[in-house]
């Protein structure tokens, strides 16, 4: 919405400080430093640094809980951005530069497991196994599957993680379109942490390397940052709600919305999970979205609470308010209420976005929710400044308000986090995928 402020400190400037701080915060778990912010005035996305290949090369990947496949730009991609407004150097993946890279051919059994349609139309044994993805905003990426060594950023001594690297399957993009082809939000690719079998979490868990739980705390203030952990961050007053089992994303059952303690009049069926209705968490979405039946009643409730302070205005499709004082003193708290009694309290800065700071009447703050048919998406705007725990063993998501620059406690005390056999989502295709992937990478190592 707002161009990047040229005075923002370069991301790389914080790297050494954050690594030192995170080394003190965590003990025994794999953790990643987080960069970026939900504030589009600065970034508009959260990303982390990932090392792949032999020798290891570092890539900046957007953290995305809304999709499964991790993918990176390729050097031969004609539509991939060559520069980024974030001030980071883009680093395309080159298979030839890694001694442990293994391109996946369409005749490979791995291709049959992850892309059966591709494998069934394989004209030549040397043709690569392709992928194609389209995101909800219409942006697309396509390319080929690749396997290579994934290096953990840091593993403190005494870690329960048995090794500091592992082979993973990912995509190498040879074409990007839409916002993915623009320099506005350009990074090296996507770090897929969805629920599916191809996500990094699933690949590492089913091979007994990391727990089937991950957590993040995304800092909202200033230039943002935060932490992303393969494990469980623990904190007092954490509340949990069950995942909706029949839906592919981290879907929750939202029951109601309250503004300033008053329930917004919305038919509960608008939130009831079904084949065409869902409420889910997505770190790859900057703003947030409300199902259309709830949007107008929600906005009306906010307007009623702040009507005495001024009249809202429309700015490029956003409902905005000229504010000359603190939004915390003017705007009401909002509560999202989920099954099981778990409520997510939103402060004004977690449902409003700063549109303009140079108006005659003061700063222009706008409703950060957009209207969407059938879906409610909780993006970075809502989930910032909270610890979130995605516990796929117990099939639940938990959260609590938190200062993401503070120290945190972590836990992997339960053996079930590391025991794939206890998972209820076992499938022969999944097991085949990871057996084949392990064999393929070991073979590649032995042939070097």
Structural class: alpha+beta
Terminal CA distance: 49 Å
Strand content: 25-35%
| Uncertain regions spanning at least 5 consecutive residues | 1-28, 154-163, 421-426, 444-448
CA-based shape = globular
Work out the helix count. 7
**Radius of gyration using CA atoms only:** 22 Å
What is the arithmetic mean of pLDDT? 83
- The proportion of residues forming helix, as a percent range, comes to 10-25%
Structure description:
Belongs to the peptidase A1 family. This is Peptidase A1 domain-containing protein. The chain has 448 residues and is an alpha+beta fold. It has seven helices and 29 strands. The radius of gyration is 22 Å and the shape is globular. 44% of the residues are buried. Strands 2-3-9-4-8-7 form a six-stranded mixed barrel. A hairpin with a 7-residue loop joins strand 10 and strand 11 (226-230). The longest helix has 19 residues, at 428-446.
Please describe the topology of this protein.
Blueprint: H1 15-25, E1 30-36, E2 46-52, E3 57-64, E4 71-73, E5 102-103, H2 109-114, H3 116-120, E6 130-134, E7 140-151, E8 165-177, E9 189-192, H4 200-205, E10 213-218, E11 226-230, E12 232-234, E13 239-242, E14 251-252, E15 254-259, E16 262-263, E17 278-281, E18 288-291, H5 292-306, E19 313-315, E20 318-323, E21 334-338, E22 343-346, E23 352-359, E24 362-367, E25 369-372, E26 375-378, H6 380-383, E27 386-391, E28 396-401, E29 409-411, H7 428-446
Parallel strand pairs: 3-9, 4-8, 17-26, 18-25
Antiparallel strand pairs: 1-2, 1-11, 2-3, 2-7, 4-9, 5-7, 6-7, 7-8, 10-11, 10-27, 12-29, 13-28, 14-17, 15-16, 15-21, 19-20, 20-24, 21-22, 23-24, 27-28
């Amino acid at each position: 919405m707002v161009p990047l402020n040229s005075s923002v400190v370069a991301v790389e400037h914080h790297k050494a400080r954050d690594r030192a701080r995170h080394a003190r915060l965590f003990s025994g778990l794999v953790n990643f430093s987080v960069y970026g912010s939900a504030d589009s005035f600065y970034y508009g996305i959260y990303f982390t640094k990932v090392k792949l290949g032999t020798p290891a090369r570092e890539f900046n990947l957007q953290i995305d809980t809304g999709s499964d496949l991790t993918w990176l730009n390729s050097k031969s991609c004609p539509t991939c951005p060559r520069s980024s407004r974030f001030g980071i150097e883009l680093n395309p993946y080159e298979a030839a530069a890694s001694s442990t890279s293994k391109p996946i051919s369409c005749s490979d059994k791995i291709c049959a497991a992850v892309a059966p349609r591709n494998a069934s139309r394989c004209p030549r044994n040397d043709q690569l196994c392709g992928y194609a993805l389209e995101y909800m905003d219409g942006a697309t990426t396509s390319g080929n599957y690749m396997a290579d060594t994934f290096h953990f950023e840091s593993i403190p001594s005494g870690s329960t993680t048995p090794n500091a690297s592992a082979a993973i399957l990912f995509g190498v993009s040879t074409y990007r379109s839409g916002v993915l082809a623009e320099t506005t939000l350009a990074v090296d690719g996507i770090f897929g942490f969805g629920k599916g079998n191809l996500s990094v979490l699933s690949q590492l868990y089913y091979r007994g390397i990391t727990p089937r739980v991950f957590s993040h705390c995304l800092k909202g203030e200033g230039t943002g940052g935060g932490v992303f952990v393969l494990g469980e961050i623990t904190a007092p007053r954490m509340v949990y709600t069950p995942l909706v089992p029949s839906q592919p994303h981290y879907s929750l059952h939202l029951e109601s919305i309250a503004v300033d303690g008053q329930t917004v009049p919305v038919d509960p069926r608008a939130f009831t999970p079904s084949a065409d209705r869902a409420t889910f968490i997505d770190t790859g979405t900057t703003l947030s979205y409300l199902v259309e039946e709830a949007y107008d009643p929600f906005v009306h409730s906010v307007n009623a609470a702040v009507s005495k302070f001024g009249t809202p205005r429309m700015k490029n499709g956003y409902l905005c308010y000229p504010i000359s004082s603190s939004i915390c003193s003017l705007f009401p708290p909002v509560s999202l209420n989920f099954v099981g009694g778990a409520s997510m309290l939103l402060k004004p800065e977690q449902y409003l976005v700063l549109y303009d700071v140079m108006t005659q009447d003061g700063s222009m703050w706008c409703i950060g929710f957009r209207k969407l048919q059938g879906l409610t998406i909780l993006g970075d705007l809502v989930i910032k400044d909270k610890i979130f725990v995605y516990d796929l063993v117990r099939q639940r998501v938990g959260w609590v308000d938190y200062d993401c620059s503070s120290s945190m406690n972590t836990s992997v005390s339960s053996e079930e986090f590391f025991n794939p056999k206890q998972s209820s989502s076992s499938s022969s295709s999944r097991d085949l995928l990871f057996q084949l992937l392990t064999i393929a990478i070991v073979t590649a190592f032995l042939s070097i």
